[in-house]
Design goal:
The protein is an all-alpha fold. The protein has 17 helices and no strands.
Length: 320
């Protein structure tokens, strides 16, 4: 049995194009792998650089870095779906459940900031951060691009002027979050938006093109009629959509409210945006999969505690 396993292992290495003799000889000289070599904790733990001497700034930095690591995991899962050669409803649902668990963790973790930072300290160190803003998370924007058709991310005021033939650059200028830092009467952009685009615009355009025909909604529509009506998949998609665009956003909104409204005077976000109208889902009613929700659900988007995980028992009530 051991001999067969050895032969199978050697064949697997050979199938990868490796010279098995050289490879095995090299392994004999290799050092044993350790946790610190593999996980690189020293490198990870040296990424936190405070701008002030206020202790709770460390909470703020580490928390956002954890968010970015979770965003990376989410994008990794979406990529597995986008480039799966034989996509099934079962595989689709399993990966969406993974992604939703990451966002569930993100949602519940806001208590770390909401209840874990001193208001006075926060109001001091935040003044050193402008014009930086959590708005400028490139990975989060990529999650949006990879989840749905661009039209669902366009500012509702401009959706009638945008379609699938619209140049990506033009569509980008009318994304819903442009309203957070752009005067649509003059076209003037805030430093927050301008610096963000200087850093990431070219990467965003490439990413938008990559997922134009590979986003989660397009992948869903590519399934057979039988698999598209799979209730487990439909509920996974609804749960993901609601978790990202209502639950997680509202946790962020409520945390920001505690600090910005908790100050003696009303404060703007560090990026200078009208953060309440930008963030609250009831204004833009943004969803990744609008056709998977009833008219009443869309009308009440962000206004009620919608139980997105409830069983969708009647597939025919949706207009897919």
């Amino acid at each position: 049995m051991d001999s067969k396993l050895n032969k199978d292992a050697l064949k697997a290495l050979s199938d990868k194009g490796l010279n098995t003799s050289v490879y095995l000889e090299g392994i004999q000289s290799a050092k044993p792998l350790t946790y610190w070599d593999y996980i690189q904790p020293e490198a990870l733990l040296n990424l936190q650089v405070q701008r002030t001497d206020l202790p709770d700034e460390m909470v703020f930095i580490v928390y956002h870095q954890i968010n970015e690591l979770l965003f990376k995991m989410i994008l990794w899962e979406i990529e597995q779906l986008a480039f799966c050669k034989k996509l099934t409803a079962k595989f689709f649902s399993e990966r969406l459940e993974r992604i939703s668990r990451y966002f569930d963790m993100l949602s519940s973790s806001f208590r770390i900031m909401k209840d874990g930072m001193d208001l006075e300290q926060y109001m001091k160190f935040r003044k050193t951060l402008a014009p930086a803003s959590g708005f400028q998370s490139a990975q989060y924007r990529m999650i949006e691009f990879a989840s749905t058709d661009l039209i669902n991310l366009i500012d509702y005021r401009f959706r009638k002027t945008i379609n699938r033939n619209t140049p990506f650059q033009h569509a980008f200028e009318h994304l819903y979050w442009q309203a957070a830092g752009k005067n649509h009467e003059t076209g003037e952009k805030s430093p927050m938006i301008r610096l963000f685009e200087e850093k990431y615009l070219d990467d965003f355009i490439v990413f938008m093109k990559k997922y134009n025909n590979k986003n989660l909604w397009i992948l869903y529509k590519s399934l057979s009629e039988k698999e598209k009506s799979d209730l487990e998949l439909l509920n996974s998609m609804r749960h993901f959509d609601h978790t990202v665009n209502v639950k997680w956003v509202m946790e962020h909104y409520n945390t920001a409210s505690k600090y910005l409204d908790g100050a003696q005077k009303k404060e703007k976000a560090t990026g200078g945006s009208d953060w309440k109208k930008y963030m609250h889902p009831k204004y833009q009613k943004r969803t990744f999969f609008p056709k998977l929700w009833t008219k009443n659900e869309i009308e009440n988007w962000g206004k009620q505690n919608l139980e997105s995980h409830e069983i969708l028992s009647n597939f025919n009530q949706l207009e897919i």
